């Protein structure tokens, strides 16, 4: 029986796995620095290629049969890409580390559905620029930014159409920028 991890040789008609791919998947499983999701996914593929039994593999990794099926299908769907990588590796134009990174990319989480990013990189850059300037330099008569004032300022400047104070607070926290607590805020003495 031909398993989804395998390819069929045009010359002999038999199913085979590329030795290099098997080795690189095994390296992923054995590397102490590999993320556990990568270890699990590579292990699922290797074990399924060996046993051909989705139930057995699912039981070993404490996942559902659908998880095993999905990863085998994903590997199968990438066969053209895997064949290209194997050809480049055989030609000497793709090193083992680069080949492994490509396999890790195939085994990475897929894009998640949902709304697109709220702000462009340019908008983020402009918001950071405003947040790192003194409010007085922006024409706001206070000594320190609050989330409310900063949100209103980036809206007034036309950087974004809308942003809540809570969202700007989360954004600044991600960037490592802090604003003053409310007790520090006061009108400018100038």
Question: In words, what does this structure look like?
Answer:
The chain folds into 2 domains: 7-106, no CATH class; 121-184, no CATH class. The longest helix is centred in the N-terminal third of the chain and has 16 residues, at 36-51. α1 (19-30) packs across α6 (96-106) and α2 (36-51) packs across α4. It has a two-stranded antiparallel ribbon. It is elongated, with a radius of gyration of 26 Å. β1 (7-8) and β2 (15-16) form a beta hairpin. It is an all-alpha fold and 190 residues long. The protein has helices at residues 19-30, 36-51, 54-61, 65-77, 79-91, 96-106, 121-132, 147-156, 165-175, and strands at residues 7-8, 15-16.
